[in-house]
Design goal:
By secondary structure, this protein is mainly α. It has helices at residues 2-45, 47-54, 57-82.
Length: 83
Amino acid sequence: MFLNELVNEEIQASEQDKTEQVANKMIFIILNMVTSLAFIMNIFLNPIAKELYFYTTLGNTLILFWVFVIVAGITASLVIEQI
């Protein structure tokens, strides 16, 4: 009986961890989609934004950092799934 309760608790904890991982992944995806949409709209609606993002060092650095954050987030998510 005691062993059965321990197994049930372990299964519940495992499922709760999986649920939290899925929720975190969905939040990450939604935030990145909204950010991408805002970035694209900003480039099309604001004529100076295209020049600032694509033709300046700071703009290139911001885009590179944003891509790095996305890749790091996806990599961390995949590593956490394997653990």
